[in-house]
Predict the structure of CoA transferase subunit A.
Amino acid sequence: MDKVVATAAEAVADVPDGATLAVGGFGLSGVPNVLIQALYEREVTGLGVVSNNCGAMETGLAVLLAAGRIARVTGSYIGANKEFARQYLAGELEVELIPQGTLAERLRAGGAGIPAFFTPAGVGTQVAEGGLPWRYDGAGGVALASPPKEVREFDGVEYVLERGIRTDFALVRAAKGDRHGNLVFNKSTRNFNPLAAMAGRVTIAEVEELVEPGEIDPDAVHLPGIFVQRVVALTPEQAADKKIEQRTVSS
């Protein structure tokens, strides 16, 4: 039951080229930077990434993106990541944009063994009707567009069918974890990390504080260890290395 792996490099050693990854984090909050850096150093390429966004301020997934290691992104926010936008518009990157709540539920559903579900989000738009540009041709045209999805009416309301998401691996970051893989997340880091962890067939968690089994009150566990296969304990320096995307101070 001891799922602790000595190093991040060892934890990601079997991630192959072309693997699909569910990656936790919201903006710069709760991003598994140490595991991402370990993947970067392994020079893994052709990755398919499922994450709310694709890094910012040259950190997180932006490290892999800038190095040309990501082939496809499934997410809900491009934001201020200019390199993300450049690669997408240049036809270098395939991008599936999804409403944020739908992305969250697709990850959760995949992890819960639910193959698909109906949601009202996106009905009457290209999300349901198809035609969203997944890949541009580099000259302003669309090389690959999203297909139409099934729409069904329930009680007089239309809903669109969305598929659950499963990935080869998941990379997440938790504030606290034990050797059995039970995890606790801090505040907004809980947004996408538990859902990404559920979606991965092999889930790797970097934890800021490693404790022994039994030290976490069962009622305080945010993600049970059944969803986690590997745990990497961060050093105090790694745990404290947190950047602020938009710093706001009073005068």
Q: What stands out?
A: The mean pLDDT is 95. The first helix runs from residue 8 to 11.
